[in-house]
Amino acid sequence: MPDSLCRGADMDTLRIYFKLVGMALKSMTQFRIDFLVGVVGVIIQNGVNLAAIGVILGRFHDLAGWTVWEIVFLYGIWMVGNSLYSLLFLHLSSLDRYIIEGTFDRFLVRPLNPFLQLLGEDVNLNGIADVIFGLACLGLSITNLRLTFNLLQWAYMVAALLCAALIELGITLFFASTAFWTGRSGALINTVNQVNWNMTQQYPLEMFGRGFRVFVTCFIPVAFLNYYPTRWLLGKITPGDPGYFLSFLPPLVALLLLSAASLVWAKGLRQYTSTGS
Amino acid sequence: MYRQEFWLRILNNLVVMYGAYWLWNTLYDRQPQIFTISRGQMISYGMLAMLMGTVFYASNQVRYYLMDQVRTGAIQMDLLRPLDLLFHLLARNSGQMIFSVLTLGLPGFLAGAMFLELRPPSSLQDGLLFLLSLAPAYLVSFALNFLVGMIAVYTMNIQRIGWIYYSMLAFFSGQLVPLWFFPPFLAQMAYLLPFRCIIGIPLSIYIGKLTLGETLSALGLQALWAAALLAACQITWSRAHARLTVQGG
User: Fold this and answer.
1) Which chain A residue lies closest to B29 (C-alpha atoms)?
2) Model pTM?
3) Which end of chain A has fewer beta carbons closer than 10 Å to its terminal beta carbon, N or C?
4) How is chain A split among helix, strand and coil, in percent rounded to 5?
């Protein structure tokens, strides 16, 4: 990970990070029922999304050439990658709240990298439900599509999932860090999430206009989270097709985004002035 | 200071409307014969459903308000007021709702009409009936949120129950997919639930899918649901009032 995010990170800071996470977990056990309801919530929320697609495809057979199980696969890849991100990093998107409420200041007075402290602030346990739901989607679609992956394809899938988590981290951190200047980044992140959750998560990119496809590839590259890897894994693109190389870009995209995000973070932190509350 | 947020929220709406625009266009290209309505009607339905979903988000504030008040114990201040809680919340929230219509609904509508082929209502009469149907739609949305919020009196935390409510609403109101595409079993469920009063019915009127007779009976159904749910709110509240524990109070 780029330098500014983990400067001074050694075994000691790692130990402190896990201690912070442990504390966050402990405070969560207060709301045990809440967690269970959260699990049910995750299932219903995603079940509803898939049911909507199911209803449509029950009528129309396919969506821009994608059958229902192919879309479930697309959705599953997105969910597993996203849950890896949301488990550890989801709260980064509320960085602006820490800044506005002035609680960010306490990260600065302690002798530990502020980024690590922010990371250790919270864990999103519902991510576990997301992982399970996502894996179920993958399992069911792989069975129903009768896919037989070879070793290379399995390795590709694992790598794509890890890259997806890092890409999302990069995007969120990049936009969240704008709060150092504007004091508020919620709406901006919301826009990104809108594109991500409501569109590329469940709809194949072929469906949209050219402008949108360029947008989610070059500007807010959420198409690399699930669409490009899925297209390759399902054999919807073969060597020689235009854009074939995009299937192998996720690691590069993740690296670029994380570098950019860490620059913005570092720059923002340097000129940060407390809200004074 | 947060002027950019105003623009971003309109942009957010445009983004989801854009998604609906392409979804229904793609499907219309493939099998136009499945639709019993024109392409323009279908696209307008899809986009407005998304827009209404976010505009009606304002009635969620009833839920959050109740949760916060119960959690912090501030609800006792509300109990001291010489004003019925239900009425108090309705007054408070309808203001938020009007604000939401003006700052999200109207700009979203205009932007959709300018950039995304959003059509005006099928006729002037349908347009007026659509506006009329929004009133009971709002009351149903308000009452459902109040009822979900009431759970907070018992459990203290309802944030996640809110997600479940929102998902059910998105699906069974006809926001994600119009109810006439549902397979029989799901359609049956949707017809028995009140959610379609919020989005499905008003928009069916808007695009002119209903005859005048059907529209009037749909409006009657909405009014019935609104009355029944508000009565349920009143009953639930007087029960809850009796066993309310004020935290730290």
Assistant:
1) A64
2) 0.85
3) C
4) 75, 0, 25
